[in-house]
What we know:
Order of helices and strands: EHHEHHEHEHEEEHEEHEEHHEHE
Structural class: alpha/beta
Number of helices: 11
Radius of gyration: 18 Å
CATH topology: TIM Barrel
CATH superfamily: Glycoside hydrolase/deacetylase
Distance between the termini: 28 Å
Amino acid sequence: MTIEQPNPAGHLCLSFDFDGPSLWIMRKMASATPVSRGEFGAVAVPRILKLLAARDIPSTFFIPGHTIETYPDVCRMVVDHGCEVGIHGYAHEMNGLQSQDEERAAMSRSIELVTALCGAEPTGYRAPAGDLTNQTIELLVEHGLTYDSSLMGHDSRPYRVRVDDRLSDDGPARWGPETDLIELPWSWTNDDYPYLEFVAFRRMIMPGLARPDDMFDNFLGDVQWMVREVRGGVLTLVFHPQVIGRGHRLLALERFLDAAAELGVRFDTMADIAAASAGGIRFGLED
Length: 287
């Protein structure tokens, strides 16, 4: 949907990283139990689509190529429900561990798979685990992507992604030139994974398993602040179907969406926000 001017109360972008088993395979946790956690994502996606359709809320899914090939019917449901699909690596690769050739191959393969799924080339990207590098930025520009959603340099304002920053510990940062790539920032504070997901790694435990209402209280507080303090702000929320798709969490999501709607925010796809921003519309102005 074309955005001709910012919504005064702001915009809310709901995004879903449909990782499937690729998240666990990337972590070398490919035994039956962790893989089954990824499998649950395919169970959850239809539930999420039903919830969003009931409220006529647009959304953006970031889907690894591995998930598209593993669950083609579920991914087709995402497209058939009118959701935007962005790229998210092929197998949730950590970009910082890849050579440029490896990363280029994974990105090209991902773009091809999303294009085949949607019938049009994707415009957006989210780095697996938010692991964006200079190399990744250069490849995104090379492939003509419109926007990225991997950085945390703002909370309610899109901005241009820089490339080739120079950072040292004995002098000020030297920022590189801006690219045409629009950043739609996110934050771990607005991501369901650290709040809700329990993971026992070899050397650490991520406890997760918080009450979803506590998480959504934090999310709603950010929306309330944006509505009060920012003109036409944009807030991006990140969900994972294998996390948010449990019954009590979906009920909490429903309550949050209804509360956010009462504040007057507009729900948009990330592609629509990025296109408007690239076209010169200014979001997120603070007095």
